[in-house]
Design brief:
Shape: extended
Order of helices and strands: HHHHHHHHHH
CATH topology of one domain: Four Helix Bundle (Hemerythrin (Met), subunit A)
Structural class: mainly alpha
Strand content: under 5%
Distance between the termini: 101 Å
Helix content: 55-70%
Radius of gyration: 27 Å
CATH superfamily of one domain: NADH-ubiquinone/plastoquinone oxidoreductase chain 6, subunit NuoJ
Largest sheet: none
Number of strands: 0
């Protein structure tokens, strides 16, 4: 049975995605690991395009590849990371990480198993109309039926962002600190001084 182009593209993207994901966790250089993660994101975006999930594919490229991974690359390249020091406690924590990894694999197999959740009894999805847009349907669902959970998630993310900034705000002697209360209380006479100088004539 000949393989069509869509199926062949699926296998190619899936193979590159699996290889890139393996290289992320096995690469010794953190910069190389971040670049392989970018490659994995691109291939995952291609798979979502094959599933006609255009919004998720574009969001993955714009948000993760365009913003998050660029930030990761800048941080990794600017920091002086001691790789030997990072690998010192790897084997000491293997007794805890090994069973957790096995448990995660078992859970993934249970979730993907159709017999566990009776997915084989679900009816086939109806064919979508020619002018159907899943991005529009997703937007309508988020801002109508799920508007309160969406707003709650945004508030939680905002609180997490503020907490991260507050935790990293440390009083250091080698950096200049500003007190907003003192800046607001400053008056013009505290900043401007008028000096009377004699006029010089030629």
């Amino acid at each position: 049975m000949p393989m069509d182009f869509k199926t062949a593209l699926f296998y190619i993207l899936s193979a590159i995605l699996v290889i890139a994901a393996l290289r992320v966790v096995t690469s010794r250089n953190p910069v190389h690991a971040a670049l392989f993660l970018v490659l994995a994101f691109f291939n995952a975006s291609g798979l979502w395009l094959l599933l006609q999930a255009e919004f998720l594919a574009i969001a993955l490229i714009v948000v993760y590849v365009g913003a998050v991974m660029v930030l990761f690359l800048f941080v990794v390249m600017m920091l002086d990371i001691n790789l030997e020091r990072l690998r010192q406690g790897f084997w000491n924590n293997l007794w805890l990480g090994g069973p957790i990894a096995v448990l995660m694999v078992v859970e993934m197999i249970a979730v993907l198993s159709t017999r566990s959740f009776g997915l084989e009894a679900l009816p086939a999805p109806a064919a979508a109309a020619a002018d159907y847009s899943n991005t529009k349907a997703l937007g309508v669902a988020i801002y109508t039926e799920y508007v309160y959970p969406f707003e709650l998630a945004s508030v939680i993310l905002l609180v997490a962002l503020i907490a991260a900034v507050a935790l990293n705000l440390r009083q250091r002697k080698d950096t200049k600190q500003m007190n907003p209360a003192e800046q607001v209380a400053v008056k013009a006479k505290d900043r401007v001084r008028i000096v009377s100088m004699p006029v010089e004539k030629d």
